[in-house]
Amino acid sequence: MSTSRWLTGGGASVVLVLTGLWAAGPGRIDRHLWGEVRPVIEARLVADERGSGYGETVPALRARWFCGAEPRDLDERDGVVRAGVTTRCTEYGVRGTTLVECSGDEVPQVVRLERDAAAAGGFRVVSREQAPDGEGYGAWLAKHFGTLSEPGPDDAVPSAGLEKAARAHFHLPASAPVGDC
């Protein structure tokens, strides 16, 4: 079939192609690429949170930040990765045998990374944008995520993984309770 006939006479083919594009649309995540950029994103989140929590002002708590990210959309073009993510960062400390949650936030963000052979993980973060608090939040989401990949209540970063990492860091048993700072 010639290209011109396919473009003009293959109505059913065009519908199938468009349906396929819609079905594979913005929610489709390249798991291999996500596996490469996720640790870089999470390390940057932790680095950027340092110094911003209440627990860090109380040395006895030995507070530390733990961050996680879940992908909403992911795209790589010309060596630049755009990752639309939901992030959760929680500051945990320890009081006796209790893990204490001191500060935290959960926000949608757009993180851009570039391939960099010299950087840990082979990528480096070149920019981060996050939704503003209050007015403008909805407009920011619509602009940066669109309606098909906009974060919803089921897209939250689970706190269980962050708590597990914090318990391990503080050498607490898996059953250690979580309290407030």
How would you sum up this structure, described in words?
The chain is of the alpha+beta class and 181 residues long. 35% of the residues lie in helices and 33% in strands. Strand 1 and strand 2 (80-95) form a beta hairpin. The chain starts with a helix and ends with a strand. Residues 1-26 have low confidence and may be disordered.
Lay out the secondary structure.
Layout: H1 3-9, H2 11-23, H3 31-49, E1 64-77, E2 80-95, E3 98-115, E4 123-130, H4 137-149, H5 159-169, E5 178-180
Parallel strand pairs: 3-5
Antiparallel strand pairs: 1-2, 2-3, 3-4
Main beta-sheet annotation: 5 strands, mixed
Quaternary structure: single chain
**Radius of gyration using CA atoms only:** 21 Å
Helix content: 25-40%
Strand content: 25-35%
Shape label: globular
Give a brief outline of the structure.
The protein has 181 residues and is α+β, with helices and mostly antiparallel strands.
